[in-house]
Design brief:
It holds the Pfam family Lactamase_B_3. The protein is an alpha/beta fold. The chain has a single domain, classed as 4-Layer Sandwich (Metallo-beta-lactamase, Chain A). The chain is built from eight helices and 16 strands. The protein has an eight-stranded mixed β-sheet. The chain is globular, with a radius of gyration of 17 Å. It starts with a strand and ends in a 5-residue tail after the last strand.
Length: about 260
């Protein structure tokens, strides 16, 4: 996977400020500003990642635009192509907002959700949705989709994401294998992944995992590129440092999730 920055790294360095930017390790790539997009070569063109907020992002690829867990006002997505495919990992409010979905769904939009979200969908959205549970597979808009478990393992966090309920997703998209972790800890199913080109991994307490857990899990399955997302007050630069030490071949990309 070849990486290119739509907004130049020079612009990102300027935004961070001279000395601080100069000290960034090569595996910690800063986003230039809110709305920045990152482009990656794919089989027939490029995949472009557009971080929006927290766990919400959009990927554009040849022939398809994918929205992941879109929440917030519909205006947050007004500068992007309409959704061909929308993925929802689970029903929590920072991942699933029916009002946002209703505003973003078009006549030909496909919707892929976990069983809990399917139960919560209004009738008009349920009619266009495909439900897959952990271990399930489907195809939508030419994208092969596998549902990967996403759950907590630490005793005092089990109530947030019990095993078997929520999804992560692995997508086969224009020759690239993309892992969207959803809300999870450092689970065996994540560590067992192979051949991942791009990953999106959370790291906030108490709902997902620590920075150290996230870095350890990423080092185990070693994607070519990883975005820390869904991290709130966690330190993404510390994550980048730990990944750089444990798996120097993994490129950590810092997106503008909270700007």
């Amino acid at each position: 996977m070849t990486f290119s920055r739509r907004q130049t790294l020079a612009a990102g360095a300027a935004a961070l400020g001279g000395l601080a930017a100069a000290r960034l390790a090569p595996w910690a790539v800063p986003a230039a500003h809110a709305g920045a997009a990152d482009a990656y070569a794919s089989a027939s063109g490029e995949i472009v990642v557009h971080p929006r907020a927290h766990a919400s992002f959009v990927m554009t690829a040849p022939g398809v635009t994918i929205y992941n867990d879109p929440v917030g006002e519909a205006s947050l997505y007004a500068d992007l192509p309409p959704a061909d495919l929308i993925l929802i990992t689970h029903h929590h409010g920072d991942h699933f907002k029916p009002e946002t979905l209703a505003a973003l769904v078009g006549e030909n939009t496909a919707l892929v959700v976990n069983p809990t979200v399917m139960e919560a969908l209004p009738a008009e959205l349920k009619a266009i949705a495909t439900e897959i549970a952990n271990g399930g597979e489907t195809e939508a808009k030419g994208v092969a989709i596998s549902a990967i478990p996403a759950y907590n393992t630490t005793e005092d966090r089990l109530k947030f994401h019990p095993k078997g309920r929520d999804n992560g997703y692995v997508l086969s998209l224009d020759g690239q294998r993309i892992y969207i972790a959803g809300d999870t800890e450092d689970i065996p199913e994540m560590r067992a992944l192979d051949g991942v080109d791009m990953a999106f991994v959370p790291m906030n307490l108490p709902y997902t995992m620590t920075v150290e857990q996230a870095a350890s899990g990423v080092a185990a399955f070693a994607p070519k590129v990883v975005y820390p997302y869904h991290y709130r007050d966690s330190d993404p630069m510390e994550f980048a440092r730990l990944v750089g030490e444990a798996a120097p071949g993994v490129k950590v990309v810092q997106g503008p999730w909270y700007e």
